# Entry
Amino acid sequence: MYVQSGTRPGPSSDACRLWVGTSGYSYVEWTDAGFYPVGTPPGRMLPVYARFFPIVELNYTWYQMPKAEALERMASQVSSQFLFTAKLTRSLTHEVDPVQWRGEVSRYRDGISALIQSGQLIAVLVQFPPAFDRVLANRKFLAALLDELEGVPLAVEFRHRSWANDRVFAELERRKITLVNVDMPALPGLFPSLDIVTNPELFYFRFHGRNLRGWRSGNMQKQFDYFYTDEQLAESANGTVAKMARQAQRGVIFFNNHVRGQAANNARMLVTKLAECGLMNNGSF
# Structure
């Protein structure tokens, strides 16, 4: 069983600053759900979103290479205290060119430079697909990719169960890279829900929903169509989140169940649960 290096128990939950938000924010259907006022154009959704949440996980950087100018404009729409995480582009995780990928890393670093310089980037999310299993070729690629991204704050999310391995956790800890912990359906082969913290500076937790039928449907609207109940969120707040908060200085939590605005509603519900159990009395939200 994986054991963190050292013997100290880590910071108390009172010392851990928490930020809660959603995975993406530019969803037209959130207007129908009542989150955005009717008529809000996509280009003006971020300022409205920032009235409710202090952080967002940028999804679009997975679909296209980020550009510094675009992120500068985005940052100008919110306060300097607003934070971002950004997905690594799919050409570095899902559609990797074995010859060109190092050049893609350079382009990505240039693209996110604006948020690094402003101090608003808390992490880059390196999310691998379910087919990315722990075979030798993938292990070598992961090590090389992390080397190329050295100096960038990183959080790695695995989808294949084979990466739930003590050696993997120990190597992430050695590199001071955050393991992304997930809440998603308990299906065969998927990475399990854990409460392991590999980087005491930051834990990263993603709520994907528990839609067993929709998860492998190939339809994102079905895959992420799920609403967490009060009881489920209270259990997570008092259990997994509280345990990770005792081991880290900071924590970020995102809801990816974006269908019909469920992510935004669940995120606000979780903030209430975290406050009730004393985890958000530090002015983080």
Summary: The chain is about 35% helix and 15% strand. The chain has a mean pLDDT of 91. The first helix runs from residue 29 to 32.
